[in-house]
Amino acid sequence: MRIVVQRVARAAARPGGAIGPGLLLLVGVAEGDTEAEADRLAGRVARLRIFANDDGKFDRSLLDTGGAALAVSQFTLIADTAKGNRPSFGDAARPERAERVYERFCNALRALGVPVETGVFGARMEVELVNDGPVTIVLE
Fold first, then answer.
1. Which residue of 71, 109, 111, 135 is surrounded by the most CB atoms within 10 Å?
2. Catalytic: 74?
3. What pLDDT shows up at residue 16?
4. What is the pLDDT of residue 49?
5. What is the pLDDT of residues 30-46, one digit of tens each?
6. Residues 98, 48: Cα–Cα separation, whole Å
7. Out of 6, 34, 51, 74, which one is annotated catalytic?
8. How many whole angstroms from its chain centre is CA 103?
9. pTM for the model
10. Is 76 a catalytic residue?
């Protein structure tokens, strides 16, 4: 799995949901990714300390701030660009498997107490965000 984490003032996916302050999560599921990996990454996202404390230092997590997450499935994160100019998506999980792992990730975040909105799996979406910082981190 590959997750692009963006700290946002607000974000929305159309079709899908919207959040205020929190994290936009672009979630790519690769062939062979497991539910256990989804659980592990949900814990990392929830506890990732990328929100400022009173001194302006990154010391607070999504759990500490009470922020929300907007999770958007994005198979293009699994692109292989090693050869030529056209990306290959052969390493991305098949849609039925990817959706199960993506849903597990979202449910694991919810189980940790994070309010989660989602895009619509497999849909063409417009994703709008106001990046706060900007702060962008990639987790694998």
1. 71
2. yes
3. 97
4. 97
5. 999 999 999 999 999 99
6. 24
7. 74
8. 12
9. 0.95
10. yes
